[in-house]
Amino acid sequence: MVNNINQLLVQAQAAYNAANWSSLIQCLQQLTQQQDSEHPEILKNQEHLLELALQVLETGDFQQRWEIAKVLTSLGNIVIPPLIDILKDEDAEEELRAYAARILGDLKNPNAIPPLVELLKTNESDELMKIAATALGQMGSLAIASLTELLAQEQTRLLATQMLSYIRQKETIAPLLSVVEDSQVAIRAVAVEALSSFHDHRVPPVLINALNDVAAPVRREAVVGLGFRPDLREALNLVARLQPRLSDINQDVCCAAVAALSRMGGEAAAQQLFQVLVSPNIPIQLQLEAIRALSWVGTLSGLKYLQQALYQLQFPTVWQEIVTVLGRVSDTTLTDKAAEILLEMLQQNHPGVEIGNIKSAIALSLGQLGKKQAINPLTQMLADEDAQVRLHASAALKKLSFTT
User: Is residue 99 domain-resident?
Assistant: First the structure.
């Protein structure tokens, strides 16, 4: 092995002398492989390997820098001082400083935190600032204190908030709470989204307050966050608190509220979702979201509301979506009702049955539900004049033959 290492060292030096960076990178990659990196001969030559690698980093093209960055990372903490020097050099090429910041982030060494923070405070390049902030975010708990300090400056507050949001540790809760009422919408939205991931008693009041934020992105994040806390449904009366957002002026917020209520579950949530579904002048996208939510809410009343909507609303797109979601009901306490609704459409000659796509969807859904009472109606569909209906009825019957 020693001979092989010495041979690679000679080849690396020759490639360096010839400024053949591609060949030099290959040699350095082999010399710093995990299984060889602790070999005494490698350790003895680490300083020299570092010198060679830094030369490629400083003068290579983008691809060569990308490849040598991995080599530098594998060399460990020995690379930190020269990389910090590059980072501090205001006359150095921006791309070179960016690579230095990335490698320092990968190494996760606390000695790299002060220069990265200083770069964020003083640099005017947005791209370089983003890379430095990302590097700090990679360091996790090591960087929380430094990122918290950056919240005090308007120039760095957004980036610091974003990086804190990536560090999903309870130590970030306090600094994130300090910016939930910031004047910048993006900062409030990022902070609310990040806080939503913590089950901490300080968070729910913040989310509830953010439901009425003047900015739609913040309201949406609050709605989404509360939607994942059905455990607080009764204690915080969440269905009632989310209900106003169903008629928000922003459709994204409305859709988020529909999804949140479906996660809440229960009769009250189902009732609110039905009111959205049958509201006049409602956008079709929101109607479709409400239909899906009523099938997810997990109550018998949710299916009954869908049944009612089939006859109250006169939109084929709505009918087809209801038929489709009924076929996806998986709760065994609800599948009988779902099949009953679909069979009733056939028995009562619902207007949707006259539409080939909808009749086909009924066949598919009945097959998915696997109820034997669907066999006769599906058999009758085999004589339908629409070839697509016949095809889907046949497929449904085959599926039923395996489940009944």
Answer: yes
Q: Strand, helix or coil at 339?
A: helix
The residues, ordered by sequence, that sit 6+ positions from 320 with a Cβ below 8 Å of its Cβ are 352, 355, 357, 358, 361
CA 119 to chain centre: 29
Tell me, yes or no, whether 263 lies in a domain.
no
Q: Please indicate, yes or no, if residue 377 is contained in any of the structural domains.
A: no
| Residue 60 DSSP symbol | S
332: Cα within 13 Å, side-chain hemisphere = 0
Region 281-293: mean pLDDT is 95
Model confidence pLDDT, tens digit, residues 311-335: 999 999 999 999 999 999 999 999 9
Would 16 be classed as within a structural domain? yes
Taking a C-beta distance cutoff of 8 angstroms, is the pair 326, 341 a contact?
yes
Per-residue pLDDT, averaged over 107-127, amounts to 84
How far is residue 351's CA from residue 319's CA, in Å, rounded to a whole number? 9
In whole angstroms, give the CA distance from residue 349 to residue 374. Answer: 16
Count of CB atoms within 10 A of residue 304's CB?
Answer: 15
Domain range spanning residue 55? 1-107
Please report, as a single letter, which amino acid is at residue 256. Answer: A
- Distance separating alpha carbons of residues 321 and 291, to the nearest angstrom: 7
Yes or no: say if 177 and 202 are a contact pair by the CB < 8 Å rule. yes
Q: Coil, strand or helix: which one is 85? A: helix
Residue-wise DSSP of 163-184: HHHH--SGGGHHHHHTTTT-S-
pLDDT tens-digit readout, 330-361: 999 999 999 999 999 999 999 999 999 999 99
Dihedral of CA 237/241/247/248: which sign? negative
Q: Which residue has the tokens 């590059």?
A: 86
Sign of the CA dihedral with 130 first, then 135, 141, and 142 last? negative
DSSP line for 359-401: HHHHHHHHHHHT-GGGHHHHHHHTT-S-HHHHHHHHHHHHHHH
Question: For the chain, what is the domain count?
Answer: 1
- pLDDT tens per residue, range 227-238: 999 999 999 999
The four Cα atoms 275, 278, 284, 290 give a dihedral, to 10 degrees, of 40
